[in-house]
Design a protein that fits this description.
By secondary structure, the protein is an alpha+beta fold. The protein has a single domain, classed as 2-Layer Sandwich (Nucleotidyltransferase, domain 5), CATH 3.30.420. 54% of the residues lie in helices and 13% in strands. The strands form two sheets. A two-stranded antiparallel sheet has the order 1-2. The chain is globular and about 40 Å long. The protein starts with a strand and ends with a helix.
Length: 126
């Protein structure tokens, strides 16, 4: 799971170390440490919609996960369209001329940065 946080002013996003999913207890523990360390006030989750914009099986699971996060951490949780974020992350990393192995390791982190950055930019527009 790619993780990213914004600077205190909410202008830029920076990637954190990717969370290797293990089990709910371990995953929530890691998220709790991250929330405390970076003083997270809101959570943005990539919403894996189908290219048509319709919900997918995975997007329903993400919505359930969002509910668990809201309940556990008492923070606002936003679902943000992540269509093409992994493709865009691959493009950016390809242009940076990273090796295929390093690129594969960085895609989730870069996708998290792109999702958070687009969420923050959309918020500034409105």
């Amino acid at each position: 799971m790619g993780l990213a946080v914004s600077d205190p002013l909410g202008i830029t996003a920076q990637g954190l170390e990717t969370l290797e999913r293990k089990n709910k207890r371990a995953d929530f523990g890691r998220l709790e440490r991250t929330i405390r360390e970076y003083q997270v006030r809101e959570i943005v989750l990539g919403n894996p919609l189908r290219m048509s914009g319709e919900e997918s099986t995975l997007s329903k699971k993400v919505a359930e996960f969002a509910g668990e996060l809201r309940q556990r951490f008492q923070l606002p949780v936003h679902l943000w369209d992540e269509r093409l974020s992994s493709a865009e992350a691959n493009r950016v990393l390809r242009e940076a001329e990273l090796s295929i192995k390093k690129r594969a390791q960085a895609v989730d982190r870069m996708a998290a940065v792109l999702i958070l950055q687009s969420f923050m930019q959309a918020r500034d527009i409105h």
